[in-house]
Amino acid sequence: MKFKINRLRLVEELANVSRAISSKATIPVLTGIKLALNQHELTLIGSDTDISIESILSSDNEKLNLQIERTGSIVLPTRLLNEVVRKLPTDTVEIEVNDQFLATITSGQAVFQINGVDGAQYPLLPDIQTNQRLKLPTMFFKQMVHQTIFAASNQETRPVLTGIHLTFDEHSMTAVATDSHRMGLRQIPLEIPTDFDHSVALNVPKKTLLELTRIVEDEQDLYLAISDQQVIFTVDHLTIYSRLIEGAYPDTSRFVPENYTTTITIDAPEFLNAVDRAGLLAHEAKNNNIQLNVEGNAAYLSVQGNEVGHVEEELKAQKIEGEPIKISFNPDYMKDALKAFTQGTVELRLTSAVRPLVLVPVFSTEVPHSQLIQLLTPIRTH
């Protein structure tokens, strides 16, 4: 195996496939990156069994300056390969592998030799046969992930809650994430082909979607395909394969109250900053909560009964309607929820001290199927 390639492009592609690799891999060969070379292209693969990322680099791409001399395959240590190629002195790198799978990496006067493993030992990627394929609106899709992913659980006791739940109808795609203490829901407009199964529901691991948003650029074409408990995302020369999480996702529609007794309309960044300030004292307490008190035409945030001190701030609400109420919430969860709205005005909907708080955007949009909901379970105080 022997080839030359543009070093900076190789650095970029090694970084992309490395995102799939876990330092806790139980299969030794999966701690490395597979390089496979045929007569026309170089393929790089990283995997941790749950997610695999494949980058196919064609010799027809002039920017790569890929020159293939001899085919073959090898698996090389991820961290070392990335560091070596990144720090090489010239714009071109040559990699040659002998029969004992010793890789010689040359650039300018620098020559590294790294022991590798036969590429034949690397697990095969799934053979995807499907007509269930969608073109996604890349920028909206990335926004949807960022506006929901933080609400997914980190606890493996309920695996289905550690991912994002994707559903479809004729004109939209909806993402929901919840850890049972909070929920994020975002709907984006999407024209679904008639031959696509609208009833399909996907539980996608959050690592898969997080790494995808880091790799894909807003202007790139992004495709989704489904096949045999796998979801596949394709963008240009990159393919991301991911297992789907098994299990029935809870019916999150029942989490959202149908009626509200109190509403507060407020600028999202203003509210975020106020919560951030009150959180300074809330984090010093054992229970880490902020109380929201609505009285007449005023609303206050406060942290009281704290051995360090107390704080109270009146919110600069644009409008307050409904009944008086006192309700407590986790400031970190509230900040995550508010960041999903970026700029703009939100409506905070309240029912009682023990029913969920709901945040929705206040805007006029001509784009249908663009729903955004953030929900928090209040903290019960005595």
TrEMBL record:
Localization in the cell: Cytoplasm
One Gene Ontology term from the biological process aspect of the record: DNA strand elongation involved in DNA replication
Domain DNA polymerase III beta sliding clamp C-terminal: 254-367
Coiled-coil residue spans: none
SMART domains assigned to the protein according to its UniProt record, in alphabetical order: POL3Bc (SM00480)
Domain of life: Bacteria
Keywords: Cytoplasm, DNA replication, DNA-binding, DNA-directed DNA polymerase, Nucleotidyltransferase, Transferase
Lyase is among the record's keywords: no
Pfam families: DNA_pol3_beta, DNA_pol3_beta_2, DNA_pol3_beta_3
Domain DNA polymerase III beta sliding clamp central: 136-251
CDD domains: beta_clamp
Quaternary structure note: Forms a ring-shaped head-to-tail homodimer around DNA.
Family: Belongs to the beta sliding clamp family.
Summary of the function given for this chain in its UniProt record: Confers DNA tethering and processivity to DNA polymerases and other proteins. Acts as a clamp, forming a ring around DNA (a reaction catalyzed by the clamp-loading complex) which diffuses in an ATP-independent manner freely and bidirectionally along dsDNA. Initially characterized for its ability to contact the catalytic subunit of DNA polymerase III (Pol III), a complex, multichain enzyme responsible for most of the replicative synthesis in bacteria; Pol III exhibits 3'-5' exonuclease proofreading activity.
PANTHER family: BETA SLIDING CLAMP, DNA POLYMERASE III SUBUNIT BETA
Name under which the protein is recorded: Beta sliding clamp
Organism: Dolosicoccus paucivorans
Lineage: Bacteria, Bacillati, Bacillota, Bacilli, Lactobacillales
